[in-house]
Amino acid sequence: MLIHSATQLLTLKGGPQRGRDLGSLGIIEDGAVLIRGEKIAAIGRSDELRASLPGEPSLDATGCVVMPGFVDPHTHLIWGGDRSAEFAMKMSGMHYLDILASGGGIISTVRATRTASIETLISQARPRLLRMFAHGTTTAEAKTGYGLQTATELRLLKALLVLDHESPMDISITFLGAHAIAPEYKDDPQGYTDLVSCTMLPIVRQWWEVHAPRLPLPFVDVFCEDKAFNLEQSRQILGAAGELGFPLKIHADEFDNIGGTSLAVELGAVSADHLVKTSGADIAALARSDTVAVSLPCTPFGLAEHEYTPAEKIIDAGGILALATDCNPGTAWNESMQFAIALACRYMKLTPAQAVAASTINAAHAIRRADRIGSIEEGKQADLLILSVPDYRHLGYRFGTNLVKQVVKHGRVYSVDVGYYRTA
Ligand code: NIG
Ligand code: FE
């Protein structure tokens, strides 16, 4: 199939886009993409590709932008219940970490998740995944972390494997047993840290070999924050995970700067995520490394806070910046990378071009899949979007509505746009 006549074809060729190189979109005007099966077979100008492929089934993208599918490299896709009541409390002035300390927050979602069956968890996550897909995300990372006990954490891993298998979307799975101190260990955080590092991680490793032998090991992530896991506890868990061969991620500097970002660099983590309170020294360490800085602007927005990732400093220092939604029930229930882009442009001062690169090729690097996704290049997966706009700068500029017209995933076309009113 030939997708042709795209007003702008954004290839995002090459990458990762480090520092000031961020925002190279590799635009081909009047562009075309040839898809063979699930893969991209050729890229070029429409006139040339059409002339060389007479009779090829075609999809006309006149007036549209064609770009790689969004990669969302940080989500907490799977949980039970919701926290609408807490949102109301937060808006009346209570702080997120105080709600957590009083047994609410993540812990209230943990209670709802532990009592939910795997079928319930899957059926509640499915519409979130569909909304992500409809908004142009073709691959998403998804974390466990609302079980905080071995059996429930394994149930969440299983549910994520089922969702990955049944949906057109690809899911990159992360084990986040260290999302919060489990309620049973409220007064013994070190006890829970030992449980995660000495018991859960080896069990997850064995479980994975049985249930997903063909997939690479999941990531292991830790919420490194004073009221969750302190620096030493984070080091213990990630160190143990690294020794078992798991690739690493970290939640760092969301509320306090306690050294999580430098720890991630020291341990060779694939990404360090959140990065709001990140210090100059941490930014310098990040910029010297291949650890991707994943910024989650929906989170400060969701918490009605005013401080965002210091993106300009990370870019100036030479870091690799990516964007994600952080979709979760507590701080940011939002499935749309387009909305993350709109926030990043306004509050992190990214140009639309930088935000697009951070949401595609760099985001693919943040989950180690840049060999397959994140750009439109020959041999890569045919995961791309047809936007109902003629200029990519509508991304960022517009917000709260969906600019995706069609999603192409593994070479198959899915229509999203309503297009027109139809009467019965
Ligand atoms: O990334 N920071 C920790 N985890 C989530 C929030 C989880 C929750 O509140 O349920 C986050 O913001
Ligand atoms: Fe998160």
Can you characterise this structure?
The chain has 424 residues and is of the alpha/beta class. It folds into two domains: 2-68 and 375-423, Roll (Urease, subunit C, domain 1), CATH 2.30.40; 70-365, Alpha-Beta Barrel (TIM Barrel), CATH 3.20.20. It has 16 helices and 16 strands. It has helices spanning 46-52, 84-91, 96-101, 106-114, 118-134, 150-166, 189-211, 231-243, 260-266, 280-287, 298-302, 311-317, 337-347, 352-358, 361-366, 394-397, and strands at 2-10, 27-36, 39-45, 58-60, 65-68, 70-72, 137-143, 170-178, 219-224, 249-252, 271-274, 292-295, 320-323, 384-387, 404-409, 412-415. The strands form two sheets. Strands 1, 2, 3, 4, 5, 14, 15 and 16 form an eight-stranded mixed beta sheet that branches. An eight-stranded parallel beta sheet has the order 6-7-8-9-10-11-12-13. Helix 9 links the parallel strand 10 and strand 11 (271-274). Helix 5 (118-134) crosses helix 6 (150-166), helix 7 (189-211) packs parallel to helix 8 and helix 10 crosses helix 12 (311-317). The two termini are 33 Å apart. The relative contact order is 0.17. The mean pLDDT is 96. Bound molecules: N-(iminomethyl)-L-glutamic acid and fe (iii) ion. Residues 76, 105-106, 109, 223, 251, 254, 299, 326, 328-331 line the site of N-(iminomethyl)-L-glutamic acid. The site of N-(iminomethyl)-L-glutamic acid has 13 residues, from helix 4.
